[in-house]
Amino acid sequence: MGSLDDEKNKRASLILSDKKYRQHPDTIKFTSLPDSMPMVLAKHNSEIMNQRAYTSAWEKDKTSIHIMPDTPGILLAQQNKVNYSEKLYRLAMEEDKKKGYDMRADAIPITSAKASRDIASDVSTAEPLSAHPPEQFPGALN
Q: I need a labelling partner for 55 at 20 to 30 A (CA). Which of 24, 34, 62, 97 fits?
């Protein structure tokens, strides 16, 4: 141990020392609050940008996507399946055959079909022409 002046000089040299004064940032102890807004935002952004987690979540979800069964597109697809099914078509046709049919002679579709048939019939249009001889029509070939 030295004199009091020596101790004062040592202490002053420690205080004025550049090596002690300028410390490397890695040697300084620093703690940040884990619930501070910048830290929470950084954690959230890193979770969003994590490609491995993104692809693993997609691999898990792509086989277990749940669509509500009463969605209009799903209902339409189910009805189209029934409408286009050859098996169900033939089954419905066989059931209709078993029921028989109810065809009245005075039903509107039947009477309209008969009227259309009479109008388009060659026989009904040929009868008035055969009643009149061709010489009654001027300019007709003999």
A: 34
